[in-house]
Amino acid sequence: MPDDLSSHLTKTVALASRPSGSEACNEGGLPAPQRFWSVLVILLALGMVVLDGSLITMALPTIARDLGIAESSIIWLISSYQIAVLCLLLPAASLGDRLGHKRLYLWGIAAFGTAAILCVLAESLWMLVLGRTLQGAFSAAVMTANTVLLRRTYPLSQLGRGISLNALVVGTAAVAGPSFAALMLSVFSWHWLFGITIPLSVLVVWLGLRFLPPDPPPQPHETVRWLDVLLNISMFALLFWGFKVLAEEVAVQGMGAHWLTPGLLMLVGTVVGIVYVRRQRSLHEPLLPLDLLRIPVFALSVGSSLTAFAAQMMGFIALPFLLLVILERGALEAGILVSVWPLASVATAPISGRLIGRYSSATLGGIGMVLFALGLLMLALMPAQVSFWNMAWRLALCGVGFALFQSPNNHTIVTSAPAHRAGAAGGMLSGARLTGQSLGAALAAGIFALFPPTSSALGSPWSFAIATAFALLAAALSMARKSQMQTIKTI
Known about the structure:
The longest helix is centred in the N-terminal third of the chain and has 36 residues, at 32-67. The chain contains 18 helices and no strands. By secondary structure, it is mostly helical. It folds into 3 domains: 29-215, MFS general substrate transporter like domains (Growth Hormone, Chain: A), CATH 1.20.1250; 226-285; 288-491, Growth Hormone, Chain: A (Up-down Bundle). Helices cover 78% and strands 0% of the residues. The radius of gyration is 22 Å and the shape is globular. The chain starts with a helix and ends in a 12-residue tail after the last helix.
């Protein structure tokens, strides 16, 4: 991680953990000294999970070469992890409500590190896939409990800062991951990339036992309906798998792709989903949080998050093709330009967090998505002959706009849900992100497949154009909340 980013992160953590005058009020949260350490544990665990994903993505070509397998097969290291996370987010949230989110969080981190041992020792693709699937399952527990623990750590007036710190850590890990992976691979075997999480998970569990906020006394809950858990896993697995297979088929064969297999997967997933939703509608505490989706502000915030992440993923996929193929930039210059987007988000996240409560989250999110859409549109319309700085400001605009949207929107998702449903809200927050990213990836693959191989690069500006439409839809959904939500003073 660059020194300036490390310094910035350290200062921001310390600032966000300071006591304020509002703490005299009964707002919950931990006292300042313990709060600092609790925040550090939460951010360290989050950074570990995000960094792990970015490290492995960078190492995929090396792993494929060493194991002697096709690049199309090595993608299962990513897909298996994503499917496991998406399938188990909501069951993990429900389990946390019953067992305690701190307990689930620490067990999830310990198991995540243990599964990494399997990856370190792996000598075949399927052993690696098994290890990554287990890591995805355990990271679902970490993701759902993350939001609950933040809500218990901060007083209400400072919760926005905690959520912005989350975004800051995610952005920092995403920026540092590829460079750190390249450095590691130049010295060590790819196996060591998986080993980084082992000592980190031990450290997080040790600190977490001491400093994380305790679980409240257990409350009575409806008994776990295992059929609903099975339906939840089946629905998300079939739909996600169908999307993945369709995207891969279209990417390889274009519009002549075989639609039967992905079509059947998504059809069966839809039927399972209909049965699942009908069962959930009559429950007081449904596994699929339909009770939360009946809250207009919550539903609009989840919808805007899904469409925003779809736009972001389409832009991320199209960007390398734009820089390397259409504009014919060198690998070094392209790498620097690609970093501008997340760096701008990292710089904006703390500012965005401080604006929460001073201005309506609906307005902040709407303005952020309009700026994001403007940046995407400027990339779509960018001329072939363009300077480095003329490209950089467009990418920076995308990063600033997305960060201005993300923290206020996440804050609204967390605070618009009742406190006893914070786990389900955290599951929906992560689920919307993953679903949006999967949708964006599938759409980008389809757009690129519309063009013949000799003109496939033309898919890049079209992807930016469609992403612009998704960003504007997210802006509209965000602004639609304005008449229904009250501004919460958090700073």
